[in-house]
Amino acid sequence: MLPKTIIRHISQFAGVRDAAKYVPRRALLYVPASNQKMLDKVPMMQADSVVLELEDGVALTAKADARVRAAAALDKLPYHTLACQELGLRVNSVSSGLLEDDIIAVSKAEKLPQAFMIPKVDCPEDLVTIYNIFREHYGDERITNTNTRLVIWIESARALLDMPRIVSSTLNLHKQAGFFKLDAVVFGSDDFCADIGATRSSHGTETLFARQKFVTCCKAFQLQAIDSVYIDIKDLDGLRRQSAEGWQWGFTGKQVIHPSQVSVVQEQFLPPKDRIEWAQELVHAYSEHEALGKGAFQFRGQMIDRPLLLQALNIIQLVERVQN
Ligand SMILES: CC(=O)SCCNC(=O)CCNC(=O)[C@H](O)C(C)(C)COP(=O)(O)OP(=O)(O)OC[C@H]1O[C@@H](n2cnc3c(N)ncnc32)[C@H](O)[C@@H]1OP(=O)(O)O
Ligand SMILES: O=CC(=O)O
Ligand SMILES: [Mg+2]
């Protein structure tokens, strides 16, 4: 329980903040919808967000089949009993020319996914195309003011540079037309490397600038920032290291491709126990010092002032949201 005097700091603090239900997306797991055996495992999957995949995890020759399986899964799976917090659906991009066929097929399902996930959003104009395709095949009523959230992928040099306009246009579409509300943005590191001609490595220095720019932009709009895929499935130490790095830089979660990656990532996207204790004690110490008129004071050998309070509040809020 936070001291009352601290509550007013929360209304101004940096980080991801939204009065609506917070959906933790520490681990966002792709499940190719062409693979029925994998789809059958969805109810038990402990990833925070499970993504029925229609895009790059599905061969061109299997797209039609995957669409039918994804639509059937949406109707069959009882969302409230799933082990995950969110069942998403990643469709194909505008530039692929496959999006409309995806929407024609999945709009036959009675249910919407809990999140629509749209890769390779390259410019604000893509949003107009996306919105028009959804309106045409779902009809206005089904896509207006629903609980379904929107997650988009930034995966090219052009998109990264234009990200503030892309994000603003997406948020405006919700404000003005009631279209799905943008809740998180994902950095598509593999497509990004292909786009800029970088050679992918396990240490990821080739995407260092892009990831830092990306996370800064997400946080400027108070959106969740989801980090790169780690494709070396067997290298859990490398995954742990890159997850810890992402967490330290301000990412809120990471994409995963294999069930073995889920718990490693989830663990890294929660602060360690001693850091949670530090945050809780700091908040109380801050409240006591504030009552004495002190904005700066010593705590465990460190100078503490308001920015440190805000970092502690980030930690407390995240823990509460993951546990509730
Ligand atoms: C850059 C990007 O765009 S990333 C997003 C696109 N890519 C994807 O969607 C790929 C998602 N991942 C996968 O398809 C798979 O993990 C692969 C193909 C990489 C490896 O799959 P496999 O060779 O079957 O791996 P492995 O043998 O270790 O699997 C162990 C078990 O986990 C299951 N499994 C593996 N990956 C997944 C998954 N993503 N979802 C559900 N189940 C999975 C397998 O079906 C297998 O089940 P079984 O024990 O009942 O046979
Ligand atoms: O879509 C994900 C990527 O890394 O590309
Ligand atoms: Mg991609």
From TrEMBL:
Mg(2+) binds at residues 155, 191. It catalyses: glyoxylate + acetyl-CoA + H2O = (S)-malate + CoA + H(+); propanoyl-CoA + glyoxylate + H2O = 3-methylmalate + CoA + H(+); (3S)-citramalyl-CoA = pyruvate + acetyl-CoA. Pfam families: HpcH_HpaI (PF03328). Residues 26-259 form the HpcH/HpaI aldolase/citrate lyase domain. It is found in: Mitochondrion. Its EC number is 2.3.3.9, 3.1.2.30, 4.1.3.25. Homotrimer. Mitochondrial citramalyl-CoA lyase indirectly involved in the vitamin B12 metabolism. Converts citramalyl-CoA into acetyl-CoA and pyruvate in the C5-dicarboxylate catabolism pathway. The C5-dicarboxylate catabolism pathway is required to detoxify itaconate, a vitamin B12-poisoning metabolite. Also acts as a malate synthase in vitro, converting glyoxylate and acetyl-CoA to malate. Also displays malyl-CoA thioesterase activity. Also acts as a beta-methylmalate synthase in vitro, by mediating conversion of glyoxylate and propionyl-CoA to beta-methylmalate. This is Citramalyl-CoA lyase, mitochondrial. The lineage of its organism: Eukaryota, Metazoa, Ecdysozoa, Nematoda, Chromadorea.
